[in-house]
Structure prediction request, 146 residues.
Amino acid sequence: VEQREERRCVELAARIELDAEMDLLMQRLHRSHEGELPDLGMLEVGGALNVESLAAGHANVYDAVFFVLRNPAVPCDFVLPAGHYLTLRYRGPYEQNGKLYRSMVEYAQEKGLAIHGKPFEIYEVDNRSTNDEREFLTRIELHVRP
Prediction:
């Protein structure tokens, strides 16, 4: 469990099931804020996981792609609130996220933590940095409260 400050974000909502779709939407979101955001490689990029798909056992399905804003002058679409986040980092392909999400939910239940909001991933190392999936480093976060 990690303490996080409030994070302002811009997003592009769409059902995303393929890596190529995620990449296209990242580029589209970046273009829609051209001149306001740094290069795509300099942004903290995330994906909002689709809870219904995860519950049905389907991994790697998203409701949106988003960027965490560093510049307070850029208008945001939503805010990830300050608070405690159950956090898990994993290396490798994204298809692991369903199983890992379920283990995080079980852990939260065991520890008496209530989950607030939707789960999301932050891509610390992704295909913008490497073509080798084994080098991907992804962080899943769940906003929790006792």
